[in-house]
Amino acid sequence: MTDCCRVLVLISGNGSNLQAIIDGCDDNVSAEVVGVISNKPDAYGLIRAHQSEIDTSCIIARKDETRVQYDQRLKQAIEKYQPDLIVLAGFMRILSDEFVSQYLGKMINIHPSLLPKYTGLNTHQRAIEAKDAEHGASVHFVIPQLDAGPVILQAKVPVYEEDDIDTLASRVHEQEHAIYPLVVKWFSLQRLKMVNNIAYLDDKAIGVHGYAPD
Ligand code: GRF
After folding, report:
1. pTM, 2 dp
2. Bridge partners (DSSP) listed for residue 155
3. Which ligand 1 atom sits closest to the C-alpha of 12?
4. Is residue 90 lining ligand 1, measured as CB closer than 6 Å?
5. Residue 150 belongs to what domain range?
6. CATH code, 86
7. What percent of the chain is predicted at pLDDT more than 90?
8. Number of domains composing the chain
């Protein structure tokens, strides 16, 4: 990695986490968002990128292609940006094992639950239905197994009796916007790495629930 970490963000939708990362990089000279790739042409995140004069690409899945073929086209698009870090920010596609294996330790994701709880979809609804007292978001390294990579940082929020999916989701979102830029910053300062499926911050192994200061 050169002095400035080249960050590439993959999105499918609103891109509020993308926005938080762009804003975070404005205050962090060690990282720059060099591109945004979407699989959806109407993703609002593409407009956010244009507003910040960030290059964008749209890789739309073709009806007749396999997942591996799509991922090969995605890889070609990614390589054009020469990224040091690939940030999945609401990128709503499952990536093939072959694809993920090429970017081990260089790709992170944010998932709206306190992993390892609630991998997959509908996490807010599942937390409400289970009457959980707390819920949250996790930033983790991406490995081939879905939502199972080592957690780097989590943020917890309370779940109130009167919550519905929207109120809970917006409380979680707010926390996502705080933790994701911080993790990008750690990576850009070369404080963060993954070795043998364990995440390290400043050469100290991070626990299963992410970094927790002593
Ligand atoms: C976030 O809730 C994130 O946890 C999940 O997708 C959502 C993306 O939201 N992976 P946004 O597009 O960043 O607003």
Report:
1. 0.97
2. 137
3. 12
4. yes
5. 5-199
6. 3.40.50.170
7. 95
8. 1
